[in-house]
Amino acid sequence: MNKRFETFTVLINRINRNIRKIKNQEMAEYNLRSPHISCLYYIYKSSTITAADLCEKCEEDKATVSRSLDFLENKGYLTRESKFLKRYKSPLVLTEKGKEIAKKVDEKVSRVLELISTELSEEERLEFYRSLSLISTGLDKIANGAV
């Protein structure tokens, strides 16, 4: 049982660390970090999204998303659609500069996913994501005291 725990936690941590490292390496030329990349990606993929929605999509805490959005707004990558709503509820809009970078992010994500998928059949990939989803749901229940 302990070997399962070690294998699971080490592999999940390694995957997470490598994802962050790839994000940071790929976007270093733009002075963007991993949380910035996630924000740009999800804003680009959404027709409309608020900071509150972005927290859920990115699975990041409010402070991290808020700092990332402030950085991206100050650097001219995004604007907020409404000056009348609370900042957290105002829809986020990419500027042309933001769209350009977000498109590159999307292309790099597609390339990385293609590279890591070469060893898996479509059925294996679907089963892998199904298994991850079941594990995630189970851990959410335990973490939130439902079990």
Could you describe the 3D structure shown?
Strands 1-2 form a two-stranded antiparallel sheet. The chain has 147 residues and is mainly α. The chain is 70% helix and 4% strand. The model has no long low-confidence stretch (mean pLDDT 89). The protein has six helices and two strands, in the order H-H-H-H-E-E-H-H. Helix 2 packs across helix 5.
Index terms:
single chain; 147 residues; mainly alpha; two-stranded antiparallel ribbon
How does the SSE layout of this entry go?
Blueprint lengths: L1 H26 L6 H12 L5 H8 L3 H13 L3 E3 L11 E3 L1 H22 L4 H22 L4
Antiparallel strand pairs: 1-2
Helix pairs in contact: 2-4, 2-5, 3-4
**Rounded to an integer, what's the Rg over CA atoms?**
17 Å
> What structural category arises from helix and sheet content?
mainly alpha
Spatial strand arrangement across the major sheet: 1-2
The dominant shape is globular
Helix proportion range: over 70%
Number of helices: 6
> Which series of helices and strands comes N to C?
HHHHEEHH
How many angstroms does the end-to-end distance come to? Answer: 19 Å
Question: Sheet bearing the most strands, described?
Answer: 2 strands, antiparallel
Ranges with pLDDT <50 over ≥5 residues?
none
- Beta-strand share of residues: under 5%
Which whole number gives the mean pLDDT?
89
Strand count = 2
